[in-house]
Amino acid sequence: xxxxxxxxxxxxxxxxxxxxxxxxxxxxxxxxxxxxxxxxxxxxxxxxxxxxxxxxxxxxxxxxxxxxxxxxxxxxxxxxxxxxxxxxxxxxxxxxxxxxxxxxxxxxxxxxxxxxxxxxxxxxxxxxxxxxxxxxxxxxxxxxxxx
Length: 147
Description:
By secondary structure, the chain is of the alpha+beta class. The chain has one domain (20-145): TT1751-like domain (TATA-Binding Protein, 2-Layer Sandwich). The protein contains 6 helices and 5 strands. Helix 2 (30-43) crosses helix 6 (128-145) and helix 4 (76-85) runs antiparallel to helix 6. The protein is globular. It starts with a helix and ends with a helix. The model is unreliable at 1-17 (pLDDT under 50).
């Protein structure tokens, strides 16, 4: 049992190290950019499952954190095929975009779906849904960055 946990811990840490994070600058502040992202997601017919305000969470325990909001969203038409190929894709889905402020600049960051799901058996680099997810993330974050 300990061996399984050690192997799982190694695999989890390896996936974090190999993650390809895509970051773009945004013209507005965090709240406005997150609002624009949510509107773009909903306008594209996807579902927003949650919006996590990390800054508010930090403030609730009297800790300082630059503004940061995480939008969790997806479309079952894209995510379900990935999970049919390997149910463990559900650990990385739905998609997530972090909108945050660093050094006075607002950014949107997300993990590239192809890199995120690359280590899962049954999900090949040629899977059409990976390109569709990547394209959607690029389009949605681009719309939110410059509304």
